[in-house]
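new request in #modeling-help
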Amino acid sequence: MTFNRRTFLGGSVAAAAALKSPSLLAAGHEKPRVVVIGGGPGGATAARYIAKDSEGKIDVTLVEPSRTYFTCFFSNLYLGGFKEMDELAHTYGALAMGGVNVVHDWAIDVNAEASNVTLAGGDVLPYDKLIISPGIDFIDDSVPGWSIAAQNAMPHAYKAGSQTELLKAQIMAMREGGTFAMVAPPNPFRCPPGPYERVSMVAHTLQKTNPTAKIIIADPKEKFSKMALFQEGWADHYAGMIDWIGPEFGGGNVSVDPRAMTVTIDGEITQVDVCNVIPAQKAGRIAEIAGVTDGNWAPVNPTDMSSRANPDIYVLGDSAQQGDMPKSGFSANSQAKVCANAVRGALTGSRVFPAKYSNTCWSLIDTNDGVKVGATYEPTEEKIAKVDGFISQTGEDDATRRATYEESVGWYSGITADIFG
Amino acid sequence: MRPFRPYPLVLAAILAASSGAAEGLGDAEKGAALFEQCKGCHMVGDGARDRIGPHLNGIFGRRAGTQGGFAYSASMTRAGMDGLVWTAETLDAYIENPRALVSKTRMSYRGMKDAQDRADLLAYLRRHSDSPADIPEAEPTARPTDHDLDPAILALEGDAEYGEYLATECLTCHRADGSATGIPSITHWPAEDFVVAMHAYKSKLRPHPVMQMMAGRLSAEEIAALAAYFGNID
């Protein structure tokens, strides 16, 4: 699908018309209806805010297959032994009590012309506005030899839950002096510092349980998020344990054999004991089905996260192609609030305020050694553009790093309360 | 001459800090006399020890909240962890309006509003620092004169509905229910405390990179809107 100026303007005009005549959209039924697909940081936040702030004037239905949601953010801390799995688990009871109709099912089709969503269980949900926030799916064959069928032998652990537990169990069961390999993904992908925080947390665990173990990372990227901070931390805390193989040394030319447990990097075959394959990523498939993707991702209007392809559909979080914001839970949560404000305005005529976006990503390198990077963003005509930012500095003192870690724990408590109520 | 000023002069501190003028230290003898009003709580000089407040020997260059043995408020400890270090600039701002720099500090002092008085007091405290010679003393002509805060900033009536929208950004980290685990509570503050704190972040006088960034793009009206919303959040 391609976009041109005309379709883009068409969307804006329709949105403007909706603003002027909210009753038009609700015509023929009692209350305007919002359907949200995906109960993560984007979707659950949007559902919660629309229900809360519209005070019953909008029917909000959240479609999420999982009854218990495990946050991907902080799941590396489970691998490092800093969090228990149940501390990452969240349920949807508070959303339901807050007026959101929570449906545990898969959305399998979107009919944009009829404005409805079909669920795997057979129900059809009509909507006036649809919010899609499905997170990521993996691109087939991006790592030759790997597929979902091989995810037990070589876990991705990039959607938190059973995969995370499996990877931890494999790390704990590794033979003495064994090798942990990570196949890192190409840009863009969910949580840019995630693979490198994960390596830090795996190293932290291995240092205690298996100190002669090795970690290799095959990476197609020349640079990665917080690179100087991670490399400094690895040298300080895990000297000699971690070998990062960038594209210069063939890190982008990788295949795996899950049956033989080998990784081939630039033609050289390595026997490994645990292999964490993080494939290349794309928008959750329902975005493609809804007709709002262009290539791997779903382009959105920077002012309100509405799809460039369809003014009645909004796309949040990892699936959205919006500009400068990283794909993160924080970003999705931030985008959801802008979207919720815009959707309420369109459906009920409530005040619509200018979009402001922000993101901060904390990473843990070792006990009480936290680092962070963050930025603020605002819409321009073409994209969500970075306004200002900061990053932790190399060589910071222990007190600062400890404060950063403690702050991240506070943030986890704050954002999960904000998402799940 | 000390004109009556009904509002905390937080902007004065900000302007002074950004111009570097706060480094212009004053008359230590006059400062010794001014210290009389601090003596109820603080000691300085030979034999000084902690009392209601910490002793102030060696205060210049110390990270806030780290004088060993003294039981600081959680807010002061946090300010130190955030990176607050006592310099001529930060001490000047703190003495001018303690709450601008450290919200909920236990130092129950309304603030020394005269810039020259503060310069004199700091000159006196500087004598009792570890290495006074390392602390710059600017020419008298570089000393700050009084800067007026535009009282309109504190008088702004916050748009609480806009504040509720802006607040959604704060609630990614801060808890709406006012609880604090690793990140401070920002609910039910007096509006003035909220506003001076946010302007101190905005001017980067108060340390903390996330807060400096978040406050940095808020207008005075937006800060007032947030103060109005969080002050009465239910």
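bot summary: Residues 1-23, 138-148 of chain B have pLDDT under 50 and may be disordered.
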